[in-house]
TrEMBL record:
The gene is eif6. Belongs to the eIF-6 family. This is Translation initiation factor 6. The keyword Manganese does not apply. The keyword S-adenosyl-L-methionine does not apply. It comes from the Archaea. One of its GO terms (biological process) is cytosolic ribosome assembly. One of its GO terms (molecular function) is ribosome binding. Binds to the 50S ribosomal subunit and prevents its association with the 30S ribosomal subunit to form the 70S initiation complex.
Length: 220
């Protein structure tokens, strides 16, 4: 049973900017209405943790999470780090000049595709904290690999700009079904419009029927 549920957060269909999930916990900003908690629990089948990064609600941009750990950007506050650690995950702050770290890392539970923009010194931290093999590459020549694809253990959904060669590489890296898709009526920055784990997916409420079908085919 893989449910896909359309939602809106803070008046926008760009829900992946605010939410992040693995298979056990979903990060939500403190001000999201409580009804979203129920949708998260029923669809993604996780617990809910209300958190901020640098007092910002943009958890989907400022965190990279898998079942092993969570990576945070340099401007996260000490008390916020403590709250993430209380969830029982490995937690590490990346020593990088970049803040929107989720745009630079596409992380599964065994492999992470890391942007060539991310400093080489940071790659080992990514490998250690997330417990993954790190591969450095681009998607369609674009270094924002984390924004152009979403994945779970079954599949990788990739922006339409990706070439056949990209699809072949990603299928090999992640050992999963890989195909093109969009969200929110044709948006190719998938990460901004989908929050997915192995149990289900939340999508922006502008997502169209054919997009739902493709998400189900690849990730469901």
């Amino acid at each position: 049973m893989f449910d896909i549920v359309p939602i809106r957060v803070f008046g926008t269909s760009s829900i992946g900017v605010f939410l992040a999930t693995n298979n056990s916990v979903t990060f939500l900003p403190p001000d999201v209405p409580e009804k979203i908690d129920d949708i998260v629990r029923n669809t993604l089948r996780t617990t809910v943790a209300r958190l901020t990064v640098a007092k910002s609600p943009l958890l989907g941009i400022f965190t990279v999470v898998n079942d092993n750990g969570v990576l945070l950007p340099p401007m996260v506050l000490e008390e916020e780090i403590r709250l993430f650690k209380a969830l029982g995950l490995n937690v590490e702050v990346l020593n990088t000049k970049y803040t929107a770290i989720s745009n630079l890392i596409l992380a599964g539970n065994k492999v992470a595709l890391v942007s060539p923009l991310l400093e080489p010194s940071v790659r080992k931290v990514v490998a250690d904290v997330l417990g993954v093999e790190v591969i450095v590459d681009t998607i369609a020549g674009n270094p924002l690999v984390g924004s152009l694809a979403v994945l779970n253990s079954r599949g990788v959904l990739v922006a339409p700009e990706a070439t056949d060669e990209d699809l072949k590489k990603l299928a090999e890296y992640f050992k999963a079904k890989t195909d093109l898709g969009t969200v929110n009526k044709g948006k190719s920055f998938l990460r901004g419009g989908i929050v997915v784990n192995d149990h289900g997916a939340l999508v922006g409420d502008e997502t169209a029927g054919p997009e739902f079908m493709r998400i189900q085919q690849v990730l469901g």
